[in-house]
Amino acid sequence: MEKEPHDLVLNVCHELMEKFLKRSIQRPINLIRTNWASEPYVYGSYSYQSTHGKHSDVDILAAPLPNEKVPRLMFAGEATSKHYFSTVHGAMMSGWREADRLAQLYTSHD
Ligand SMILES: Cc1cc2nc3c(=O)[nH]c(=O)nc-3n(C[C@H](O)[C@H](O)[C@H](O)COP(=O)(O)OP(=O)(O)OC[C@H]3O[C@@H](n4cnc5c(N)ncnc54)[C@H](O)[C@@H]3O)c2cc1C
Q: Which residue minimizes the CA distance to atom 21 of ligand 1?
């Protein structure tokens, strides 16, 4: 897809939107798309766990800073999901995890 001409992709997106909306809509005036598959530092992409790694490596990535008791900087995203890394649901659940962490922090200070 990244290698296809801009106008072709825009036209196909337009067609698909009309198909799913079941009505004609104005052709979008522009299209912004990513080029992650062609990006030499990324090539894709999503995280994976090394065969040399351990599940505990993910805990380190997911750990808030400076520490669990005083979280000032928290991390979500598929790479912080121990069991569902590389997936959308892993990313989503990691967001819920961090939201729960915040909620617990606030309720424990009532
Ligand atoms: C080709 C492909 C197909 C996939 N298919 C599936 C599938 O079928 N099912 C499935 O469950 N998962 C699939 N995935 C994986 C899924 O897309 C990812 O796991 C998920 O999007 C990760 O979400 P995230 O929020 O963790 O990260 P991302 O969606 O990558 O979000 C990270 C965001 O941070 C931004 N960012 C990065 N650096 C900075 C910076 N320095 N400052 C500010 N912003 C920054 C990025 O631009 C990006 O918007 C696929 C992934 C790819 C690449």
A: 88
In a shared domain, residues 28 and 72: no
The total number of structural domains in the chain stands at 2
pLDDT in tens, 62-92: 999 998 888 899 999 999 999 999 999 999 9
Q: Do 63 and 90 belong together in one domain?
A: yes
Q: Are residues 31 and 75 in the same domain?
A: no
Ligand 1 centroid to Cα of residue 46, in Å, is 6
Q: How far is the CA of 36 from the centre of ligand 1 (A)?
A: 10
Q: Ligand 1 centroid vs 1 CA: distance in angstroms?
A: 17
**What Rg value do the Cα atoms of the chain yield, rounded?**
20
Q: What is the pLDDT of residue 110?
A: 58
Structure tokens at 25: 């809509």
What range does the domain containing 31 cover?
6-38
**Block residue for tokens 């790694």:** 53
